[in-house]
């Protein structure tokens, strides 16, 4: 469902994107080409800063936002999800936040007030709060990263996790095409 926010902004959705009918996309949200947004996802850009302004939430080309994901932002701050990234089931991305290209964020993880570098893999049940991750970092399952965390203790992404991330993106591109075809048949 596409909804206007209290400031009157309506989401902008590329024709080639697929948004499940149970998802809610509200306000100043830009959804680019070939994006998949799964069931019960909520992407809501409706808060303003002290000047009454807000930045957009942008979901870039080829990215998949899976079932039950919540993307929101505090005080109108920007949120960008890069190209060909995967935000897995029930994760929360809360702005201000930037997720770069080719990132995988695992099930039930939370990212807040951070920049996630290109090619990072954040596994399931992780929290990244207020600390930026450089390119190609692997965050093991159930890891909490915040102020004072030693990033040198995190390894680079192993090849098998990069391959897994790429396979998730590919599978969701297939879903976009399939769901768009089904929608056209109705």
TrEMBL record:
This is Carbonate dehydratase. It comes from Agarivorans aestuarii.
